[in-house]
Amino acid sequence: MVTTTAVEDLATIRDWLRYATSRFTETGLAFGHGTETPLDEAAFLILTALHLPIDQLEPWLNARLTHAERQRLADLIEARISTRKPAPYLVNAAWIKGHRFYVDERVIVPRSYIGELLDDGLSAVVADPDGIESVLDLCTGSGCLAILAALAFPNAAVDAVDISADALEVAKRNVSDYGLGERVTLYRSDLFAALGAKTYDLIISNPPYVTAAAVSSFPPEYKAEPRLAHLGGDDGMDLVRRILADAAVHLNPEGMCVVEIGMGRETLETEYPDVPFLWLDTEQSEGELFALPADALRALRDES
Question: Which of 189, 188, 205, 191 lies closest to 260, judged by CA?
């Protein structure tokens, strides 16, 4: 527990950063929801709670905190340890490439590598961002990728799909926060089911892709997230197979499909040896995203 003495004695952000890092280390928390270490987790929680720029720690280290601010940090540190909830749930905020999104327990904490690639307009597979006029985001969750796509492709109408009504409520809030209600349309749908004959220039998806065995052994931080947003079947690829089977129907002739699949590369390459997957790397990942053009997906559909 954070004692009254600690609240009184810890005066600066530097003090609280050290204290939180020590507590998070000694209590053996799990990370991975935007941070990877106790220090990064402490910095995220402190900066977000104090409404400071998330990428600027050094200027504020010696800033003294009010008693109310100290108590706020004390409560958050204790909540992180006692509940084992991911830090973004405690402050209702997650970040992708400088963009802040509201999150709570109704959605998975956004951390998709597709978000990194959208920062430069998916330049590896999209030659002309202005030429993208329609985008589909499957399994949108908090709506973060749909919003990033709308920002990256200014001429595009974006459809965002999720099977969870709760997730779509969070996505609706984020779309509204970004003022994109006229460009981003939300659908409750099991993948393509509710889209009829609609077609798109670009389909992006970060679907559930965790294996059943991995989900069953999750630490508490991951168990706090919606199970539906993680579970991809025995080998993790159940929804990915469905996307591969049906995406061609919903892509325009020169369209492109980009999907995040975690550690599923070997499984897909073994099962689909003739499919010309283009593997996209990011600063933090290698071989966890593939891109396929419409013609490759049509060929796959014709073979099946």
Answer: 205
Domains of the chain plus CATH, in order, are 4-91 (1.10.8), 110-303 (3.40.50.150)
* Sequence-ordered list of residues with C-beta below 8 angstroms from that of 191, at least 6 positions apart, any chain: 138, 139, 161, 163, 239, 242, 243, 246
Task: Write phi, then psi, for 88 (nearest 5 degrees).
Answer: -60, -30
The C-alpha atoms of residue 260 and residue 102 are separated, in whole angstroms, by 22
- Here the tokens at position 70 are 């100290």
Q: What is the pTM of this model?
A: 0.95
Query: What confidence tens digit (pLDDT) does each residue in 45-71 have?
Result: 999 999 999 999 999 999 999 999 999
Beta strands in the chain (DSSP E): 94-96, 99-101, 134-138, 157-162, 184-188, 200-205, 251-260, 278-280, 289-293
**Cβ contacts of 58-64, under 8 Å, gap ≥ 24:** 60/13, 61/12, 61/13, 61/14, 61/17, 62/12, 62/13, 62/14, 63/12, 63/13, 64/11, 64/12
- Residue 102, both tokens: 């509201």
Q: Are 203 and 250 in contact (CB under 8 A)?
A: yes
Q: What is the pLDDT of residues 99-112, one digit of tens each?
A: 999 999 999 999 99
Q: Which two three-digit tokens encode residue 135?
A: 């985008």
For the stretch 268-284, pLDDT in tens is 999 999 999 999 999 88
Q: Which helix (H) or strand (E) holds 57?
A: none
